[in-house]
Amino acid sequence: MDALVREHGRAALMVDADNTPAVAAYRRAGMSGRTFGAAVARAWGSAGPS
Description:
- The chain is an all-alpha fold.
- Helices cover 50% and strands 0% of the residues.
- The chain has helices at residues 2-8, 20-28, 36-44.
- The chain is flat, with a radius of gyration of 12 Å.
């Protein structure tokens, strides 16, 4: 994950919100959660994809 962030400036991982073991593992690894819609809005900004 660190290498992806260094190379691309960010990285993302999608997981079902009800997959609590995976969510817990990713949080222990230092990741934080966002809903899909919020993540897309943050990635594209208000302009949206072109």
